[in-house]
Specification:
The chain is 33% helix and 19% strand. By secondary structure, the chain is α/β, with parallel strands linked by helices. The protein starts with 5 loop residues before the first strand and ends with a helix.
């Protein structure tokens, strides 16, 4: 059996904290399709959620169900940072344990709607003893506009899909089906600093910069926690980026190129209001 070099570990929010959970599942399905395009077979995908999303019968995909309560009473995605960190952190801790059970040497915590390079698993397999990598370069993407904007140097501050870490450097997780309180007791502040938040792992573990852009941070969708958008000038999605990340390329028609490059009507209206 081929050893697992890299496990993509993701979580889906509680259905209560969503306006339209089918939209959440559709966004996840697009992300999953991207992760599954790896050029190396030495990877696995771990999905942790309160409710099982539609999943293909594929041995590389493992679903872990939890019964954690909604982190917020808000019936929508804008629950506030503390609720997001608690829900994501505890679910990713459960996913980390599942990744170890799958024999993964490295893990990448991925937001359920982001896209990743198809080169990651092969790259990680070539460096089995490395502590891991932080993504300094990547792009924001608005799939509907087929538009990109590059981020250099601070990508980990923008995107939750921005670290790959060797599993033995991460904390041990209680066996069985631990409660959220048990997970906090076992992991302490590392649960939020390393798992619930995507900005601190590289502060505590020495990670090398990934030598190529590794992820596309999806923005502009209604079910995102952050509410971030891609409102200004952008660039088209090239055929090579589309192939590498599993996203639709920008059409060659003039209106398609204009929609990708020019600021959206919403952005223009907001700028006019600020004047």
């Amino acid at each position: 059996m081929t050893a697992t070099a890299l496990a993509f570990v993701t979580s889906l929010r509680h259905p209560h904290n969503s306006r339209d959970y089918r939209a959440v599942e559709e966004q996840f399905a697009a992300g999953l399709a991207s992760w599954m395009r790896q050029t190396s077979p030495r990877f696995a995908v771990i999905v942790v959620a309160n409710r099982r999303p539609p999943l293909a019968d594929d041995p590389r995909i493992r679903f872990v169900q939890v019964d954690f309560p909604p982190p917020s009473n808000v019936a929508g995605p804008r629950t506030g940072l503390a609720a997001v960190v608690r829900d994501k952190g505890t679910k990713l801790a459960v996913g980390l344990a599942a990744a170890r059970d799958a024999g993964a040497r490295h893990v990448m915590f991925v937001d359920d709607d982001d896209f990743v390079s198809n080169r990651l698993a092969a790259f990680v397999a070539q460096h089995p003893d490395a502590a891991g990598w932080t993504f300094t370069d990547g792009w924001r993407i608005n799939v509907e506009r087929r538009a990109l904007r590059a981020h250099h140097g601070d990508f980990h501050l923008q995107c939750g899909s921005s670290h790959i870490v060797r599993t033995d450097l991460l904390p041990e997780v209680p066996a069985g089906a631990p409660t959220q309180e048990q997970l906090y007791a076992a992991l302490g502040d590392r649960l939020e600093r390393w798992l619930g938040s995507h900005m601190h792992i590289h502060d505590d573990i020495e990670l090398a910069p990934l030598p190529f852009p590794g992820a596309l941070y999806r923005v502009g969708q209604a079910e995102a926690h952050s509410g971030n958008s891609l409102s200004g000038w952008s660039r088209p999605v090239s055929a090579s980026v589309a192939r590498e990340f599993g996203v639709p390329a920008t059409g060659l028609a003039p209106w398609s190129l204009a929609r990708a490059v020019l600021p959206s009507a919403r952005a223009v209206r907001e700028r006019l209001r600020r004047r």
